[in-house]
Amino acid sequence: MKQYDYIFTGTGLAALMTVYKMIVSREFRDKSILLIDEDAKKTNDRTWCFWQEQQSVWEKSITKKWDLALFVNEKFSRDLDLKPYRYNRINGLDFYNQVFELISKQKNIRFLNEKVTDINELQTHVYVATETQSFTGDKLFNSIYRKFEVESQTKYPVLQQHFIGWFIKSKEAVFNPDQATFMDFSVEQKGNTRFMYVLPTSTTEALLEYTLFSHQLLAKIEYETEIQNYIAKLGITDYEITEKEQGSIPMTCYPFWKKNTKRVLNIGTAGGWTKASTGYTFKNADKKSTQLIAFLQKETDFRKFHKRTKFWFYDLLLLDILDRKNDLGAKIFSSMFKKGSPVLIFKFLDEETSLYEDIKVILKCPKTPFIMALMRSIRYLFK
Prior knowledge:
By secondary structure, the protein is an alpha/beta fold. It has helices at 13-25, 92-103, 147-151, 220-233, 282-296, 310-324, 329-339, 342-349, 355-362, 367-377, and strands at residues 2-9, 33-36, 47-52, 62-66, 68-72, 77-81, 86-91, 109-112, 116-121, 126-130, 134-142, 158-170, 179-184, 193-200, 205-214, 239-252, 264-266.
């Protein structure tokens, strides 16, 4: 049974970011590392977006950037100047290729394309089994999401950011390739928080995603019917679908960190690295993986890695509201974007604002639902 210094069970975004940065840091060249995943990461299975001021280490994988965005609801639309931010899009396969190109050059790292069947932490090591092999490791990073464990509890709200997206190419030139549609709440809400998200790459090509923040997923035909309706609303009569994507991302403030142990650290969605109030994953995982690299060079007890911040509580307030009144999402986001500074809002969503700046953003939101949520959620501050 082979022993490794570090084992990664699951190689999603967080795991691959962490391994990539371990290599770049050159501080782990003497460590043996095993990555295990049943997905070989050879398909373009998702799209990630994030906003950033400076160039990113992922620059090679970025396929499109926007300086402008659009926010829409049934009553108004607003053009958003994002400077100094730029909104970046990364295709999943481009990211995988960037990471695995570097991994393939490392003699101390092995990728195993198999399904993990067992993880067992013992006193001196962690045991991991696949369908055909078993290994031991000194430390383990787990990104396999325990869906039942999170969604069967009732203490913390759990919603989903779920979507289906079509990449289309139209005969009509209707898109502005310099402006991404961040949220379009003009679509019928039907008692939920529903919006269209549009990423144009030319006047005739774009990704259109029908997205919900809600509890239950829809039948596939419901998403696709809404996308068809939106395409018709844009004045497009002749188009082809070049690619499709779909996903569901849990939105919750469930305390994943309480499941960390001395030797096992939960990362990515399984570790609560997704931004709970929006479902954004890429930027949060980028930050967390950088923090983890620094942590590994100083600490050995994974129970010390987590630090709860004020933004966790802000997210909890919003999720409490949407859990009880799921149709309020359009009103809340519209109140923020109608007159608020888009740069300040993005800074707030990046969890980089001061308390004074937090208050400026929060005061744009409807007061009553947040006061009620604050009264219900204040107990979590002392746990």
